[in-house]
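anyone else get weird line breaks when pasting these?? whatever heres mine. first is seq + tokens for prot A
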Amino acid sequence: MAVMNPVWPITALYFGPIGLWAYYALGRAARPQSAKMSGHGGHHHHGESDQPFWVSTFVGSTHCGAGCTLGDIIAEFLVFFTGATFVGSTFGTELVLDYLFAFTLGIAFQYFSIAPMRGLGLKDGIIAAVKADFLSLTAFEVGLFGWMALMRFVFSDPHLHPDSPVYWFMMQIGMIIGFATTYPMNWFLVRAGLKEVM
């Protein structure tokens, strides 16, 4: 699936060596089977996979995490460099923009996996992508935002900013927590038939 090409490098941004291991052990391992299927003119049907379910769920969670992570990185730098604030709160602005960018990119990532697999047009593809990704990306952001609140109000004094490597190290931890909170949601969504097996 072409959309996974940017997903794995983004996953490695926050998962580090674990992301690299996952790519070789779980991402690349699935390729020969997929290639074999497409070589016979066939594709996986909705809900089918040659992988164990936990692997499909893990890969689906990386897909969700990539959109969220990319959106969060863009939003954090945007707030930092522009000094934008809503109702006088920089932290509130970060959370709102993080979610909006994560939502937009998460839906785009999901659209480019669902629409080709189901043969959907633009409108139906976007609706399906929202159904598939709204809850999973929200679950990711809940974990990340909880950690960001701890970063801001408990762990760092003075507050860290995106121009600090320590800030991004702490954000990496938050993104891993976000992955942990989105994994069970992805499990549920795939089981419920709302999200494609990756």
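and prot B, same format (seq, then tokens)
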Amino acid sequence: MKRYFALLLLFLSLNIFAQSPVEDKMGSWFTYGATYRISDKVSVSNVVQSWHYEIADNFNFLFTNLAFNYHISPKLTTSVAYGWMDIDSGFEKSGPHTYENRTYEQLGYKHKLANLPIDHRLRLEQRFLNKPAPTKNVMHNRIRYRVGTKITLNKTLFIRLNNEFIWTIQTQKNDGFTENRAYGALGINIFKAANLQVGYLNRKISGLDLHRLQLGFFYKVDFRKKTE
């Protein structure tokens, strides 16, 4: 267990030095995620996120989505989803808002490396951005790949680690690699179907190195009939 805690502390200690005003602030991401299992093959999931430039203050981003998932096997899942976003680009004061409609297609795969569970997520996104005037509305495509693991410490505690690479492809030019998100958290199983995660997320985007405290609540509901 000490080895796992040391790994988490090392992960959280990376990239702690900031330069610009927005980088100097520790921001926050609050996440609610729920999955509803309808049958052996089908589930529905929903995520709501609220981002802030400072902890629980200085609004940055609101995100909500609804996804339909088809479980090809216990290891392989496909998804399609729709999401809506409200983005405030102002840091020290409220700035013009951009509103986004987003669709995506996703492939998820799980396996074990030795005794360590590994999960992969590949996502193709279509972002329809309604920008404030006089900027024209734009449509971007993104490719996202995330790899992660969940290390069980005991029946109550676990460590969650993942890293995500994001590439943006605009309609007129290819921006290539645009963002990286590294995340580490301590998870607490509140009860069998729900857990709470408290951790740190390092976001590198547009030359910025952002630091975010993350608090997430994740819940699962199984509507399948139990066999006797």
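btw re prot B: The mean pLDDT is 87. The longest helix spans residues 2-12.
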